[in-house]
Amino acid sequence: xxxxxxxxxxxxxxxxxxxxxxxxxxxxxxxxxxxxxxxxxxxxxxxxxxxxxxxxxxxxxxxxxxxxxxxxxxxxxxxxxxxxxxxxxxxxxxxxxxxxxxxxxxxxxxxxxxxxxxxxxxxxxxxxxxxxxxxxxxxxxxxxxxxxxxxxxxxxxxxxxxxxxxxxxxxxxxxxxxxxxxxxxxxxxxxxxxxxxxxxxxxxxxxxxxxxxxxxxxxxxxxxxxxxxxxxxxxxxxxxxxxxxxxxxxxxxxxxxxxxxxxxxxxxxxxxxxxxxxxxxxxxxxxxxxxxxxxxxxxxxxxxxxxxxxxxxxxxxxxxxxxxxxxxx
Length: 329
Hints:
This protein is of the alpha/beta class. The chain has twelve helices and ten strands. The strands form two sheets. The chain has a six-stranded mixed sheet, with helices on both faces. Strands 2-1-4-5 form a four-stranded antiparallel sheet. Helix 6 (170-180) crosses helix 7 and helix 6 (170-180) packs parallel to helix 8. Keywords: Antibiotic resistance, ATP-binding, Nucleotide-binding, Transport.
């Protein structure tokens, strides 16, 4: 069989620019390359080359009256909550205007004030739900805004107008609350059983939360706030729309909590209830503290309602309404 001769191999000439590039690379003296490396400043670290830094997040500046490192502030066993110069503006209006509070550990602390006084805004900033425009909030010595992870572990919260996952059953809701706090399944089951028995909900855990009454809803929400065993409970209007029986049950649980060393901070419009259960109070109006301290010192021998009206200016003469005395019929 005849073999076909292979065609002659022709030399392929590279383009001039490629040849020049190769020639320049090969002919460059090693010493000159070394000089270039030495003379070029290294402005980027190895870590930045491996993983470029993320762009800095734009954060709203917070004015602080006493900037300190949270690590330099030791946890205090005597003060559960310390608020210094807390301020919040909505537009040009000051909802909270330089509030100072100090809540002793193990106390039952009440905050009272008229509608729009700044109670809910204050408690929202205390618990990390609303960023303040200025001031400091410390929970057992931990700055809530500089060290939120550790500070919030110590707090249980019942916010105002709380919206629950009401398509869950009571048992599912408590499990969800415990899982969010990092508790394991066995711990959640045990604590959910204890809390539901304490609040009288053990026979309602199989029902949807949406089917609960107002009192039952408040009780399951407080149970969810307590399931991770916080040291501080912050409750915004916990007894609003709650019947007297449910109120008594909740108060019994909260008293046991404070007797064991826990601290409760609550806001309420019920003067009689606040005076009956709290050992220290703060009266707030127009975003400022009018009086604050142990109950006996704030009341000065009067009832809380009388003292509140005196400080908040609730007494006003009603004049120029004589037409109300002339009935239309």
